[in-house]
Design goal:
single chain, 505 residues, 20 helices, 71% helix
């Protein structure tokens, strides 16, 4: 008799077109493959050419824009750029899993009720490509409309005459549509444009915003963790919504200061929105503590007598892990609010007291988060092993290594492989889904380097260079989807303990 776990994996494989049991269908499609591949190549070439033309048009429009228009372009369009990058990166994750040919597919760890909510990497990239072209077109139109009319604003003589022109109103509507249209598509009750995926996203967002109402699922905390990396993007979206409501008469005024005012970077809204994703994850962790420390899938598995979801932890250990995870997210709050205090205290107070305290809190949060990424989210032994080596001074191990080196002239290929196996057991774990241990060492090093962008993202007083802010935000979302490869791997190995395959060599 088949288990529910096997039924879920088969349903997902049929939907994604993967799995060993689908190979017999490939022969019937071979006759149409050449023509279909040729049409696909022509469509991709045309889409790439159109995207390059739009990119060139946006670049020219930005180069010709005045300072006020450029500042507003950064305000309105940085958040959508990072969201689109997130879609591209999720497609890259799916593509890597597709290359690995895992069976069952790693997406099975989400355990969705309807497998049709999942999209293949090709479909995700298709959505990302269309979104990119629409984004570039919107940026180009906004810059051209705003720049053509912006100089007329400088001729205003008094407040009564400060009425925006039709061009500025059109530019304002164009920027607002960049946010309104995607939300409308997400919420539209239509049977097209991937309705199952949109329904799943809507429900998961609602679950993230109300974590106290029900047990936390894998999809709930996964999306909330992605939102933590998008905290700066959410803050930019809030400022853009504020600017949209303020109207073009205020936002296009040549004497406005982008740092101050109700929609400026010093508004009290900024730290609240920056802290919102961490508050959601904190609430989710506290809900996990209340539920015995386990996710919703693990609670169901306990009742059914199965091993599903994350690793089977005893209740006390699971509660302790969830509590420490809550503490990790709580440690982000001092970083957010101490950074914002720069605009509320005297310069001497900031330099002598607040800034050193902010540096200390930022370092603690970054170190805590990095340790948790590697040790708990990825289930690697790297951090504890390094700590043990640092405090043991290598006395015993060093003597053993010296004795082993006496036979160095007899080392061969088998010894090299044995050395790799020892390194894997000591620093990583016994089973690696992606094969080569060097992949894990490189990922841990990259995560440590990119964690610095996390601190930058949470600090509102480091935001005066728009290009630097965009770069650090992009680095953080890249780190998040690197993290997701190994977080899904941990859940996958716990759900399917018999899986031994790795990356093709």
């Amino acid at each position: 008799m088949r288990s529910p776990r096997e039924d879920d994996a088969d349903a997902l494989a049929r939907h994604l077109g993967t799995g060993h049991h689908l190979h017999h269908h490939h022969g019937s499609k071979s006759e149409q493959a050449p023509a279909e591949k040729a049409r696909r190549k022509r469509r991709r070439a045309f889409a790439a050419l159109l995207a390059l033309c739009l990119l060139r048009a946006a670049h020219v429009s930005y180069a010709n824009a005045d300072e006020t228009t450029r500042a507003l372009a950064h305000l309105f369009y940085q958040a959508p750029a990072i969201l689109i990058a997130a879609v591209w990166l999720w497609g890259a994750n799916l593509f890597l899993w597709h290359l690995c040919r895992f069976d069952p597919h790693p997406l099975a760890v989400f355990q969705l009720e309807d497998a049709r909510a999942h999209l293949t990497h090709a479909r995700v990239w298709g959505v990302a490509h269309i979104s990119t072209m629409a984004y570039l077109a919107s940026v180009t139109v906004f810059l051209r409309l705003a720049n053509e009319e912006a100089y007329e604003m400088s001729e205003w003589s008094d407040a009564a005459e400060k009425k925006p022109t039709n061009g500025l109103v059109a530019a304002h509507v164009c920027a607002a549509a960049t946010y309104f249209v995607p939300v409308l598509i997400l919420c539209a009750p239509l049977d097209r444009w991937y309705p199952h995926t949109r329904r799943f996203l809507r429900r998961t967002i609602v679950r993230c915003l109300t974590p106290w109402r029900r047990p936390v699922s894998f999809a709930d905390f996964f999306l909330a963790d992605v939102l933590c990396s998008l905290a700066k993007t959410l803050s930019d979206a809030e400022r853009s919504a504020c600017a949209t409501l303020a109207g073009p008469a205020l936002m296009f005024a040549p004497d406005r200061d982008a740092r101050f005012g109700a929609c400026g970077s010093t508004s009290w809204h900024v730290p609240l929105v920056l802290a919102l994703p961490s508050a959601i994850r904190l609430a989710q962790c506290l809900r996990q503590v209340r539920d015995g420390g386990l996710l919703a899938e693990s609670r169901k598995a306990q009742k059914a007598g199965e091993i599903r979801g994350d690793a089977p932890l005893c209740d006390e250990k699971a509660k302790r892990v969830a509590a420490f995870n809550a503490l990790k997210y709580f440690s982000a709050f001092p970083v957010v609010f101490l950074s914002h205090l720069k605009y509320s205290v005297a310069s001497d107070t900031w330099t002598s007291t607040i800034r050193p305290l902010w540096v200390l809190c930022a370092a603690a949060n970054t170190a805590f988060s990095l340790y948790w990424d590697v040790t708990h989210d990825w289930d690697l032994r790297l951090a504890p092993a390094l700590v043990n080596e640092c405090f043991s001074f290598g006395s015993r191990d060093g003597r053993r290594d010296v004795s082993k080196n006496a036979d160095a002239d007899r080392v061969g290929d088998n010894d090299v492989r044995d050395h790799d196996s020892v390194m894997q057991r000591k620093y990583l774990r016994s089973r690696l889904l992606y094969g080569d241990p060097n992949v894990y060492f490189a990922a841990a090093a990259a995560d440590a380097a990119l964690r610095l962008s996390w601190t930058y993202k949470l600090s509102s007083h480091l935001r005066h260079n728009a290009g630097t802010v965009l770069a650090f935000t992009a680095l953080e979302i890249t780190r998040r989807f690197l993290w997701s490869m190994f977080r899904v791997e941990k859940a996958y190995l716990a759900r399917y303990p018999g899986t031994t395959q790795g990356l093709p060599r």
